Amino acid sequence: MEINDKKILWSSSKKNGLYFEKALEKLKKNPNITVIAKEGRFTEESIKKELSPKEIDQGLYFIVGPAHVILNVEKMLRKLNVKSPHIIDERLTM
To answer: Vertex 44, ends 41 and 47: CA angle to 5°?
Structure first.
């Protein structure tokens, strides 16, 4: 995988929360995009498994979701030594 390729890690705490499944299936057809969607949250270990050291070091991370989820993901990324300027978040509020 080239660093210019895109990787989307999408998770939901519930199966019915994967509401972008059809759109993600279309993205999977693009050879430059890898989509990993799962029920249940990613852990630090599962993120390390899905991302290469180069991706961890040079990647740009967009995190969208409820504040508590974003804070947990950001904490995991920082433990992996992802630089703060590489993390962009969008907190969903209702």
So the answer is: 75
Q: What is the pLDDT of residues 55-77, one digit of tens each?
A: 899 988 999 888 888 899 999 99
Q: What is the pTM of this model?
A: 0.76
Q: What is the DSSP letter of 3?
A: T
80 neighbors 56 (Cβ within 8 angstroms): yes
88 forms beta bridges with: 62
Structure tokens at 14: 């519930």
Spell out the residues 6+ positions from residue 19 whose beta carbon is closer than 8 angstroms to its own. Answer: 12
Q: Which tokens is 16 given?
A: 């019915």
What b/e string do you get for 49-72 counting C-beta neighbours within 10 Å, with b at 16 or more?
eebeeebbeebebebebeeebbeb
